[in-house]
Amino acid sequence: MSWRGSVWGCLPNFYTGERNYSHNSPSEFYSSLGSEGFSIGDTSGTDEEDTDSAILYGTLRGSIVGLRYYTGVVNNNEMVALQREPNNPYDKNAVKVNNVNGDQVGHIKKELAAALAGIMDNKLAVVEGVVPYGAKNVFTMPVQMSFWGREENKEAVLDQLKMHGFKLAPPLKEYGFGSKWISGKNGPTYSAPVHAAVHLTAEQLKSEFDKLFEDLKEDDKTCEMEGAEAVGTLLLPHQKQALAWMVSRENSNDLPPFWEERNNFYYNILTNFAVKERPKNVLGGILADDMGLGKTLTTIALILTNFQDGKPLPVEKITSDKICRFFFIIMLLYEKSLFLLYEESSNTVEPGVSSVKKLEAIPLKFSGCHLKRYVSGMIFVFLLVCTASIQSAEKKYSEDNPRTTLIICPLSVLSNWIDQFEQHTSQDFHLNVYIYYGSDRNKDPAILSDQDVVLTTYNILATDYGVSKYDSPLHKIKWLRIVLDEGHTIRNPNAQQTKAVLSLEAHRRWVLTGTPIQNSVKDLWSLISFLKLKPFTDREWWHRTIQRPVTMGTPGGLRRLQSLIKSITLRRTKTSKVKGKPILELPERKVLIQHVTLTEEERQVYQSVKKEGKAAINRFFSEGTVLAHYADILGVLLRLRQLCCHPHLCTNTSSSFSAAGNNTPEELRQMLVTKMKLVLSSGSDEECAVCLESLTLPVITHCAHVFCKPCIYEVIRSEQPNASCPLCRNELRVEHLVECPLEEELDSSNGKKDDQEWISSSKINALMHALIELRKENPTTKCLVVSQFTTFLSLIENPLKKSGFAFTRLDGSMAQKKRVEAIQCFQSSQAGSPTIMLLSLKAGGVGLNLTAASRVFLMDPAWNPAAEDQCFDRCHRLGQKYNVIITKFIVKDSVEENMLKIQNKKRELAAGAFATKKPSASEIKQTKINEIKALIDL
DNA sequence: ACCGCCGGGTGCC
DNA sequence: ACCGCCGGGTGCC
């Protein structure tokens, strides 16, 4: 395939039709969950504790008045929403009542409204309503209200009500969580309230959720479908299944989940809402296959295969395209006297797609000025006709029948999408893919909606939207299809990017994610809301009908969720089977450990550093200050690990043991920053002791412990006024937290490598020996040489050059453009392409594909075995043709050997830990201490 | 609303 | 009668 070039971009634009840019902002009215008030940043999580820990205070019968002034209708037993209306000109206490659809039904009678106003405004409780009977009344109808809130607010709520002469009744038998699963002819019946039900822990939930998918592995989703002609790659059986499922979802006319047709009305069996018009199902869903099963490829196949009425996307055949280009080039040749023309893609922007293609130099010379003018004149007329017809043909797709698919992905996988489009689109077809990224992105909606595919990132989308909701080009277009890659990115409903995504318009909607649920069911809301499944687009209905029943363990709650998931999700894991065969048959993967013995000199340096460090750490132990010196200890270990690799790595020995008192605040800050950088760069892959995930937005405390900023803020908030460090119980204050200054080079020792003369090391010798042997065996075998220390990789470059190896390099510090080049270069099978890639352990996102390599040399062990495994998976994945052999170099009698032992322990833990609970801070502390002891032989 | 409430009309039986 | 009672007008917040 080829990229939309400037040749096309320069064509006059004949399409001037005005579009009706309508905006459909998500209903934002339900903010009474008590969750909007507190938010500590974009990381999802803590802000909704309130709703999860809500209890039912009791119920109250009231009345809805003014029915005849509004159009909203309800059924008996239908849920209604209560919404404050502080700007009502007649009563500042007014409380509106809306039906599930958001149409106003009436108001709460004023005396009751006066009592509710304070409760609702101060978020003391969430008030929910159901109309028990009298739904057909003309003037007023009853409403059964239930009050939910946190335990500590219960008294305040009861007092407020009492002041206005109201008293809550205990939870009613007849009122619960909506109707039962299937309602009978006599109207729905209700499940008993489940106040006593046990709240599920996050872990229980997670394992429950994993069960959700078990049943849908071998469903009726086993139909296969071939991709259209323009798909240049043969699909694997499970991908054909996914394609068939996606196509059927897009062309389906089924009712959405939980809707039933009953005597010409459509009922939602969860809320009892009814409408005359058939509710629309989402033409799309969630593709939740495990990583590596080819979600990207399947999606590309979908784009090419299912355009309209089940027909493939009418992509341009490359031939006609070439003719047009040819004429256009001639015209340019004349007009601008160009003899060399580069067709530079106008969409080649930051991520650095190498889509610059050199066209043949055409040294054309015309004789005679008149002839030239004549010829070019004719060509110009021809082109006008040509483009006019093309433009009018495209216009057909631009209004009600859009042709464009919008793909939104994290920046880290943007280049992967570009590669995959290139790889999987047949050579004979020209697919217009516009990369909407970079400061020079084209914001003309007419251009964007003429593409086949527009590819962008969550950040760009959120940025445009943040500047102006109404000028954001992506929001001016109604897309044929939107695909959210790594869709769980939008799990935080308060994040700007989530809001930006939710307000996009499209006919078809897809979410791709390997982990639809990261932490809890509430992660799903943004996804479901994006899919526009009524009535869940509104947080209140999602919460009342799904989230609360599930988290409170209401009977049927999980079943309800399962039913929802099942109807819109396809998920296969690496171990799933198609027709009895495993989905993926990957070649074998072997891990060898190659022991290395240090030379006498190396050993001496190592021992002396070890002796010194061990003494210091011993001192910390006897003083009981191990955790206070955690960063220092990591520093000692880091130096030892570096010495195992190469003596030159260990240059910044600026011993920071001198934590002595009389420092200026600035010195203290600098010291903390240094320590934090040490922790972050030590490759220890430190987890945040609060969330137990890897650090996001790391900050360091005065006691030198590193946490995620949002996590530690939450600790301080919840323990106020006197918060203490979760690890060492020292005083903790927001103003004492030090943030990590901009992510510059987080490399441990990136200094004076040039002024030192190059020397080898035992490990380098071992590597070179292995590489040269391998080359003798088979000179085309490609290898990854992996280290956590980029400086080490630089040192390895030298002997590689000397021995005549062609190599390339990929590390975290490289610009996106360079990375893409390095990857493409390495993956190429051309003769002379590099056979070695120097790879930093953590470089690249999950999508990084280095299947050209079948050998891996891991130069130094990682703390976290998962990080190693992830790295191996970059070549041991779909597309790998050979058995993969991994060689780990481990220095005998060193910290590295001890690290291996710890790795094994961690592996065992991870394997058995599926259903076990999260360890506490003190357990983490103990684990860390034990690790330190084991590492330094204490 | 086949109600409640309001306020004007009215006033023995 | 500074009441009761009647019956018409009226009706969310």
- What is the CATH C-level name of the domain at 762-919 and 930-935? Alpha Beta
Distance between the termini: 61 Å
CATH architecture of the domain at 762-919 and 930-935: 3-Layer(aba) Sandwich
Give the biggest beta sheet: 7 strands, parallel
Instruction: Return residue spans where pLDDT drops below 50 for at least 5 consecutive residues.
Output: 1-49, 174-199, 335-368, 388-396, 653-660, 743-753, 913-917
Specify Rg, calculated over alpha carbons. Answer: 32 Å
* CATH topology category name of the domain at 762-919 and 930-935: Rossmann fold
What's the number of helices? 26
Based on CA inertia axes, which overall geometry fits?
globular
Please give the share of residues in helix: 25-40%
Kindly state the mean pLDDT as a whole number?
A: 79
The proportion of strand residues reads 15-25%
For the largest beta sheet, what order do the strands appear in spatially? 16-17-14-18-19-10-20
Helix-and-strand structural type: alpha/beta
CATH homologous superfamily name of the domain at 762-919 and 930-935? P-loop containing nucleotide triphosphate hydrolases
What would you say this structure looks like, in words?
It is a single chain. With 938 residues, this protein is α/β, with parallel strands linked by helices. It has 26 helices and 33 strands. The protein has a seven-stranded parallel sheet. It has a six-stranded antiparallel β-barrel with strand order 1-4-3-2-5-6. α11 links the parallel β16 and β17. α3 (110-121) runs antiparallel to α4 (154-163), α12 packs across α13 (496-502) and α18 (630-645) crosses α19 (665-681). It binds a DNA duplex (13 and 13 nucleotides) through β4. Keywords: ATP-binding, Helicase, Hydrolase, Metal-binding, Nucleotide-binding, Nucleus, Zinc, Zinc-finger. This is Helicase like transcription factor. Its main location: nucleus. It comes from Apteryx owenii (Little spotted kiwi).
